[in-house]
Amino acid sequence: MGNPKAFLTIPRKEAGYRPVNDRIKDYGEVEQTLNPEDRRLQASRCMECGVPFCHWSCPLGNKQPEWQDRLYKNDIRGAYRLLTATDDFPEFTGRVCPALCEKGCVLNKEHEPVTIRENEAAIVERAFLEGVVEPRIPSTRTGKRVAVIGSGPAGLTCANRLNQHGHIVTVFEKNEATGGLLRFGIPDFKLNKSVIDRRVDILKQEGIEFRTGVEVGTDIPLSQITEEYDAVCIAIGAEVPRDLQVEGRGLHGVHFALELLQQQNRVNAGLEFPADIRISAKDKNVLVIGGGDTGSDCVGTANRQGARSVTQIEIMPMPPEGENPDTPWPYWPVVLKTSSSHLEGCTRRWLLDTRRFIGDSDGRVSEVEVEEIEWVNDAATGRKTIKRSGKTEKIKTELVLLALGFTNPRAEGLLEQAGVEKDARGNVKVNADMSTSVSGIFAAGDASTGASLVVRCIASGRQAAEGIHHYLSSK
Questions:
Q1: Which of 94, 260, 270, 473 has the fewest CB atoms found within 10 Å of its own CB?
Q2: Is the dihedral of CA 92, 96, 100, 102 positive or negative?
Q3: What's the 3-state SS for the chain?
């Protein structure tokens, strides 16, 4: 540890966001960066604890104290080497991870944790800038062939690790470009897609083949894949969205959140959509149903499209601000989260249940009826249940976005053909090594867990790669 007293003398300093009036006019990344000297000072705040709870909190087991020290000493090559030993794609997690490590940081007991996520992003960006990141082409090949189906964070990680083991890897992606939800679900203002392209170019140079626009199970039967490859990893994500089966659901103007987000990302990439299928918030009162990150992404996108107003409602109660005794340090704190999108303009409301969508004479949504509710303890089950107040109101809206999360992977096509066993929630059931009930077929990421975090998908992809490598090595 280069400066053992830095945490006492140097306060936490975040890079912050671009000015609101500037950033809502484009889809550029909203986060700013600190200069290298300020970043070194922030890295010096790491206490290198005897028991590093940042390490404990991270699904990847990142060695934060070690690479913080390398960053403080301006050893970018060493910092990048330590960082990528556990995190295949720190340029992704450094932008979109909720930073579980920071919540476990000992300094977070005073709400002044080390800026671990920003430091992580700074390391990888300097590594690219200074030529540290170079293709690592395996010196030998095993001759074993692996098909990875899906190119989201889990699929990319699995492919990367297997390729480094010397196996021949082909990644199949049904969309027109790689990245999965990284590319089509996360808005450009959080993750510029050139960041994905930059990494995929390196993976290609390292020997991984990418076949985009090919949906296994539809364009190619899975039987053909299993004949041509020695192992298969299913990393197709959890694409079934939660829905609201209430009156008026079929009205025009009621969409799943991902319909808006995917379309806008494609527009940003240069694709044009006919006016009759283009989803736009311009000059509309927008209602986002769902209070999570996807809902926040809808808020930011609607503001950039020129929404007249944006309201976000949530059926759960408003979380406490700052402290929550039910989730003490070092656990993940369930507290009020205000994103950069919320700061751009949004009315947030809690404890509202959607009762029905109301349409105009043209069949377009014009209002949403909601009811105030509260959560009470059920004496019989010990669980919280909804108590209805009977007090309803109507919210004026011309565009409704359902941001209620995702449940499980789609059963049709690939999974039907695979014949793999599924769990009670419809996810692919896996063993400790990520193998499925069918020999030679493995699963990783949201396909095996349901919707999760990018960082957890990377960890799952790593685990699947090791399981596949062991399977191939034992054959």
A1: 270
A2: positive
A3: CCCCCHHHHCCCCCCCECCHHHHCCCCCCCECCCCHHHHHHHHHCCCCCCCCHHHHHCCCCCCHHHHHHHHHCCCHHHHHHHHHCCCCCHHHHHHHCCCHHHHHCHHHHHCCCCCHHHHHHHHHHHHHHCCCCCCCCCCCCCCCEEEEECCCHHHHHHHHHHHHCCCEEEEEECCCCCCCHHHHCCCCCCCCHHHHHHHHHHHHHCCCEEEECCCECCCECHHHHHHHCCEEEECCCCCCECCCCCECCCCECEEEHHHHHHHHHHHHCCCCCCCCCCCCCCCCEEEEECCCHHHHHHHHHHHHHCCCEEEEEECCCCCCCCCCCCCCCCCCCCCCCCCHHHHCCCEEEECEEEEEEEECCCCEEEEEEEEEEEEEECCCCCCEEEEEEEEEEEEECCEEEECCCECCCCCCCHHHHHCCCECCCCCECCCCCCECCCCCEEECCHHHHCCCCHHHHHHHHHHHHHHHHHHHHHC
pTM (predicted TM-score): 0.96
Q: What is the pLDDT of residues 285-331, one digit of tens each?
A: 999 999 999 999 999 999 999 999 999 999 999 999 989 999 999 99
Q: Which residue shows structure tokens 């690219």?
A: 128
Average pLDDT on 203-218 reads 98
Q: What residues pair up with 287 in beta bridges, in sequence order? A: 311, 400
